[in-house]
Amino acid sequence: SKVIVFFVFVTLTTVVFSQERRSLKSLITTGGKYIAVDPTGKTVYIAGNEYLIKSSDGGLNWGLTGTPYVHPEIVLVKPDDPNIILVTKVGELAYSNDGGSGSWQVVISDSNLHPIRLALNWSDPNFMFLSRAPSLNNFSLWRSTNGGSLWFADSLFTPKKYVFDLTSYPDVADTQRNNMMFACGEGNPVQNHIWHGHRNGNYYGWFAAGLDAFGVSKNMKSIAIVPKKYPNDFARLLVEDVASANDTVFNVLSLS
């Protein structure tokens, strides 16, 4: 079944938000490519065009990290420790366990690295994932099992496929699914796919789910999970087709 984005927008317009504009010009950075917030809402990082910036009071006040990080593209904060952050850009992935106050540890250095997405498993935030543009000699999905300071190519995932988005099953209390990861990306030159990953010790086994049976477009760039509302309900997997004439959110899978 299909859910048109227009209806989502109608729902959102019934919610009223207060707004307060804050300029980043005084912080010597402009714009922002990515934002990461810890679960308490107090610690916030923005990957600005020039620098990584940080707020420790929920966004009221901003400043550069103690040791500036230049030209960040994606930032990820560890939910159980907001001082642990991962920042990536073309050529490297960097790690800090002190909120960027001290020196940055470059955990991946590779001129062929073009990052696409950073994600983690909410039931065990030590499991992190980096998707990157495929290159001749590198896998497109990398994995950390120690909270970001050590990374390995995820050799159980097909190496030459783009992974455009990754997400974890959001309900950590659901012990049947809370270790599952979901990804969307290209399946082959003419067909994109989704994958579901199942944890086995320090590894994830990945399984492709072709979308032909669902009769939907194959250009899937974004993915989200709607958890079960009650025990006998189905969890739902939503993917977004951003290349169609009318952007549409498809309910492509029901997870019993």
Structural commentary:
- The structure is a single chain.
- This protein has 256 residues and is mostly beta strands.
- It contains 1 helix and 20 strands.
- The strands form 5 sheets. A 4-stranded antiparallel beta sheet has the order 1-20-19-18. The chain has a 4-stranded antiparallel beta sheet with strand order 2-3-4-5, with no helix packed on it.
- The longest helix has 8 residues, at 5-12.
- The protein is globular, with a radius of gyration of 19 Å.
- The two termini are 16 Å apart.
- Mean pLDDT is 80; it is low at 1-13 and 212-216.
What key attributes describe this structure?
3% helix, globular, 256 residues, four-stranded antiparallel sheet, disordered N terminus, 1 helix, mainly beta
The number of E-state strands comes to 20
Count helical runs: 1
Strand order across the largest sheet: 1-20-19-18
List low-confidence stretches. 1-13, 212-216
Distance separating the two termini: 16 Å
Structural class comes to mainly beta
The overall pLDDT average reads 80
Helix/strand order: EHEEEEEEEEEEEEEEEEEEE
Computed Rg: 19 Å
Helix residue percentage: under 10%
Beta-strand content estimate: over 45%
Spatial shape: globular
Largest sheet: 4 strands, antiparallel
Write the layout of secondary structure elements.
Layout: E1 2-4, H1 5-12, E2 34-37, E3 44-47, E4 52-55, E5 63-64, E6 74-78, E7 81-89, E8 92-96, E9 105-109, E10 115-121, E11 124-132, E12 141-144, E13 152-153, E14 163-168, E15 181-188, E16 191-200, E17 203-210, E18 220-226, E19 235-241, E20 248-255
Antiparallel strand pairs: 1-20, 2-3, 3-4, 4-5, 6-7, 7-8, 8-9, 10-11, 11-12, 12-13, 14-15, 15-16, 16-17, 18-19, 19-20
